[in-house]
What we know:
By secondary structure, the protein is an alpha+beta fold. Helix content is about 40%, strand content about 15%. The protein is built from three helices and four strands; from the N terminus they run αβββαβα. The chain has a four-stranded mixed beta sheet, sandwiched between helices. Helix 2 packs across helix 3 (about 100-120). The chain is globular, with a radius of gyration of 17 Å. The chain starts with 14 loop residues before the first helix and ends in an 11-residue tail after the last helix.
Amino acid sequence: MKALSFPKSHRLLRPADYGKVFNDVQIKVPHRNFLILATPNQLGHARIGLIFSKKNLKLAVQRNRIKRQVRESFRQQHHLPEMDIVLLGRQGLKDLDNRAIQKALSDLWRRLNKKHQLSQTTEAPPADLSDRR
Length: 133
């Protein structure tokens, strides 16, 4: 049963957690209906925070449906890097059915992993220039 859980430790709960991501965005993954902002953490697992405004999804039913889909998709991603992730909703989400949302989210997770791997390979340790003559 543990594999099916979504504990508080995997969620961004406090405004300071969100602020950390917004102030130090290392990876952006845009999509027509979503935007992922992410920054590394030292917790050993990914955490997610969700932002869906009333401007884009007027009814609470719509916002809650999208949030359920996102949480379920995130819960099933066992290969995400150690990051704090904020997922923002954009306009047009209310017109998508559940299958389209799941397809978009799986594409977003794949692209997030790819960008994280690219950022890890491009980060080379600083060279010690004092030994050069």
